[in-house]
Amino acid sequence: MQIIHTDKAPKAIGPYSQAVKANNMLFVSGQVPFVPETMEIVEGGVKEQTTQSLKNVEAILKEAGLDFTNVVKTTVFIKDMNEFADINEVYSEFFKDHKPARACVEVARLPKDVRVEIEVIAVF
After folding, report:
1. For 73-105, what is each residue's pLDDT tens digit?
2. What is the model's pLDDT at position 94?
3. Distances from the Cα of 54 to the Cαs of 1, 2, 23, in angstroms?
4. With contact defined as beta carbons under 8 Å apart, do 19 and 60 qualify?
5. Which CATH class is domain 2-123?
6. Catalytic residue among 25, 35, 59, 104
């Protein structure tokens, strides 16, 4: 097992790692829309928050030597299912033609009251 960390993604705000490599798999912890340099929530609505969350995922994948084409499963936690289409629009810009398995669930509350959190599992 190997811990993956990059300063180009938000530092963990609890007792967890940004990602863990185990055998040929990478488990990326849920990424919220914090700007890594300030640890503040990105300004704007759900599209901006989704973009920042996915940029954070991308930075962690890159640190491990991977990209979105290595992702096999995502979980998207959202505050309001009415924003599903906006989230999908941004999500598809990052994943393009690559379509990993995915779960998307509406939750009562997310850390710091953000609108979206995204976790991924990738393979080497």
Report:
1. 999 999 999 999 999 999 999 999 999 999 999
2. 98
3. 24, 22, 24
4. yes
5. alpha beta
6. 104
